[in-house]
């Protein structure tokens, strides 16, 4: 028998063998990391429940549904000893539909407490968050030994970490003033912005967006004219055409809005159908429903300021891809990751899941996350983190993520380090004991 030496075939076999070796080494390394994590996880075997209190019905239900899936997705992914969970606890998320109502939220809070849940999270609606902050503070003062921590994932009224700051409240989103600081830092250098219209929801967040927009533009671009201002009912307007008509009549070349959910999706839909050609500077254009409403007509005309974006790469990109594959939806509430990460870090250091011990470590906590180093500022319990300005455009090789299965994405325009986005606080924190 004659053997014929075929270099390419041999090389291929060697390549396969080396690949197999590399995969085996990678698997062994992952196993060692997992074992090390388990050995160092002081609270492995314990279950920590988080009560999720947000809307699952009404006009804002699509946002709430996306966010409860986000919490449940990462509760599953981060449970048990792993590099993202040094405490080693198992996470469990218990959803409560608050119908975007403060009264319903207080009922849900009491139900969660009655079930022995010591951590709650909420974020849709600062009116709801304000009621929960006060209720949690009252409960904790009256029930020592049964304290509850409020993990605020998205309610951004600056007063919550200023005049109304409370020891048991921790905010993981950037507040309205921080986002407006970043937004106006960009807008001041845009010569095409001469006339601005302010359109916002008629509750504390919307009021704060308008307030800080006027203050910061007056300081950074005193030549810019505010040509109109409107506040509308939260989650009640179904036709924004009359508002678009007013904006067009004002001659505004830009709109600043803190609207979210259906209130933004229907607004931009009316703008596209009504032929408004100005730009939108937003907080929540990437949230469920709005990207589809933008379509291709809005290309290059809609901006969003946030603490994360759709094309960050790394772990965030992997998680976003996995989330989309599982739910056919986009993951955008990055504060969910920060909540699990910071809780686990604090619990590991405290060697306890008790809220009293965890709160002591949580304030002032620093750790490296998907958007760099973040810090839960001790003085007011406001997470300090970088912010990003993105613009709606067609997806490409540099910015490949397609939002809501469109051909479009939010492309990074500018990054603001934490020290630029940070704003001062007037908080006079009253600590227990």
UniProtKB/TrEMBL annotation:
- Tell me the superkingdom of the source: Bacteria
What name does this protein carry? Leucine-, isoleucine-, valine-, threonine-, and alanine-binding protein
Instruction: Quote the Pfam families the UniProt record gives.
Output: Peripla_BP_6 (PF13458)
Record-linked SUPFAM superfamilies: Periplasmic binding protein-like I (SSF53822)
PANTHER family in the cross-refs = LEUCINE-SPECIFIC-BINDING PROTEIN
* UniProt xrefs under InterPro entries: BCAA_transport (IPR051010), Leu-bd (IPR028081), Peripla_BP_I (IPR028082)
Q: Which organism is it from?
A: Tepidimonas charontis
Question: Which keywords accompany this UniProt record?
Answer: Signal
* UniProt signal peptide: 1-24
Q: Does the keyword Signal apply?
A: yes
Domain Leucine-binding protein stretches: 47-395
Give the family from UniProt. Answer: Belongs to the leucine-binding protein family.
């Amino acid at each position: 028998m004659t053997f014929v030496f075929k270099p390419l075939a041999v090389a291929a076999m060697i390549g396969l063998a080396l690949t197999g070796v590399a995969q085996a080494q990678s698997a062994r390394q992952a196993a060692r990391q997992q074992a090390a994590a388990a050995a160092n996880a002081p609270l492995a075997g314990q279950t920590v429940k988080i009560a999720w209190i947000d809307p699952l019905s009404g006009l804002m239900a699509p946002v709430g549904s996306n966010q409860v899936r986000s919490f449940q997705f990462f509760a599953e992914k981060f449970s048990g000893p792993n590099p993202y969970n040094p405490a080693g606890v198992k996470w469990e998320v218990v959803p409560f539909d608050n119908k975007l109502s403060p009264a319903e939220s207080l009922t849900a809070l009491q139900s969660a407490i009655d079930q022995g849940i010591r951590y709650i999270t909420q974020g849709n609606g600062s009116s709801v968050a304000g009621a929960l902050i006060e209720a949690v503070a009252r409960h904790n003062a009256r029930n020592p030994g049964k304290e509850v921590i409020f993990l605020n994932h998205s309610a951004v009224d600056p007063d919550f970490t200023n005049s109304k700051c409370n020891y048991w409240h921790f905010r993981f989103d950037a507040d309205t003033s921080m986002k407006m600081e970043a937004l106006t830092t960009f807008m001041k250098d845009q010569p095409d912005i001469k006339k601005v219209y302010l359109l916002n929801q008629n509750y504390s967040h919307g009021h704060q967006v308008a307030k800080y927009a006027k203050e910061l533009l007056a300081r950074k671009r005193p030549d810019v004219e505010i040509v109109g201002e409107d506040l509308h009912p939260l989650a009640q307007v179904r036709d924004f055409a009359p508002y678009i008509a007013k904006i067009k009549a004002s001659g505004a070349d830009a709109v600043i809005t803190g609207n979210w959910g259906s209130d933004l999706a229907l607004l931009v839909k009316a703008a596209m159908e009504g032929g408004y050609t100005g730009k939108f500077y937003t907080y929540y254009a990437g949230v469920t429903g709005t990207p589809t409403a933008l379509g291709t007509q809005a290309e290059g005309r809609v901006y969003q300021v946030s603490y994360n974006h759709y094309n960050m790469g790394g772990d965030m990109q992997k998680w976003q891809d996995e989330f989309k594959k599982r739910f056919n939806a986009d993951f955008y509430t990055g504060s969910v990751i920060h909540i699990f990460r910071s809780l686990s870090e604090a619990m590991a250091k405290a060697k306890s899941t008790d809220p009293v011990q965890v709160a002591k470590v949580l304030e002032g906590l620093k750790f490296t996350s998907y958007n760099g180093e973040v810090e839960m500022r001790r003085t007011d319990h406001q997470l300090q983190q970088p912010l990003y300005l993105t613009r709606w455009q067609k997806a490409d090789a540099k910015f490949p993520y397609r939002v809501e299965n469109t051909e479009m994405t939010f492309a990074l325009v500018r990054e603001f380090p934490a020290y630029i986005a940070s704003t001062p606080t007037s908080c006079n924190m009253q600590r227990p004991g």
